[in-house]
Automatic annotation (TrEMBL):
InterPro entries on file: Flavin_Rdtase-like_dom, Split_barrel_FMN-bd
Family that this chain belongs to: Belongs to the flavoredoxin family.
Names of the cofactor(s): FMN
Positions of the Flavin reductase like domain: 29-157
Annotated PANTHER family: FLAVIN REDUCTASE LIKE DOMAIN-CONTAINING PROTEIN, FLAVOPROTEIN OXYGENASE
Keywords: Flavoprotein, FMN
Protein name: Flavin reductase
UniProt keyword annotation of Membrane present: no
Keyword Plastid recorded: no
Length: 203
């Protein structure tokens, strides 16, 4: 095995380095985050740096890049305090990837990619129609990460929509059966395959 050092990383061009380092963290969930500004204009963008932070209360976070790189999602969440997280299904793959393009302010990605807003009475921000798992989130905190100018955005689950046939009696959700996709690097998409379910580990 080759040992890659920070010097090796610096020798790579910007895109190569980003792709390489992004893969090192392993497979990540492909998630579309929907927000709205004060005028009700929706923004939808693909995020992969999603992290479970606790079950009681149910907290889920994501890493938002520096504001100058992706300003709309963070600004909308700061403004309204709400957002939705939507797993990407296999038939949504290309449209979801296209949301990572930098569309100008005042433009909704929903108008330019093959994704449809789905308004629900239970939540103020729309979801992505056809997403296999849809989460309504209320903002808890935005924590700046000073080292690289990114932000950890923490939300508390307000509602979750998914097919109950994918939920086992013990609460386990078969995301592979649901059709949720995973990502590696900047543009590599995977369809997970269930291997086995192990019992609770004890000493």
């Amino acid at each position: 095995m080759k040992c890659y050092t920070p010097l090796d990383l610096q020798a790579m061009d910007r895109y190569q380095r980003a792709n390489f380092v992004n893969c090192l963290g392993g497979f990540k969930p492909a998630t579309l985050i929907v927000t709205q500004n004060q005028s009700g204009l929706s923004n939808v963008a693909l995020f992969t740096n999603i992290v479970h932070l606790g079950a009681d209360p149910a907290l889920i976070g994501f890493i938002n890049r520096p504001k100058e790189a992706t300003p709309h999602t963070l600004a909308n969440i700061e403004s309204t305090g709400f957002f939705t997280m939507n797993h990407v299904g296999i038939d949504q793959l290309e449209a979801a990837h296209q949301t990572s393009a930098k569309y100008p302010d005042g433009v909704s990605e929903f108008d330019h990619v093959a994704l449809t807003e789905h308004a629900r009475l239970e939540f103020s921000v729309p979801f992505v129609a056809g997403s296999p798992v849809q989460l309504g989130m209320k903002l808890v905190d935005i924590m700046p990460i000073k080292h690289n100018g990114t932000y950890l955005v923490i939300g508390e689950l307000a509602c979750a929509f998914l097919n109950e046939s994918h939920v086992a009696a013990d609460g386990f959700i078969d995301l592979a059966e649901a059709g949720s996709l995973a990502v590696s690097g900047l543009q590599g998409y995977y369809q997970p395959k269930f291997l086995q379910k192990l019992g609770y580990a004890r000493p």
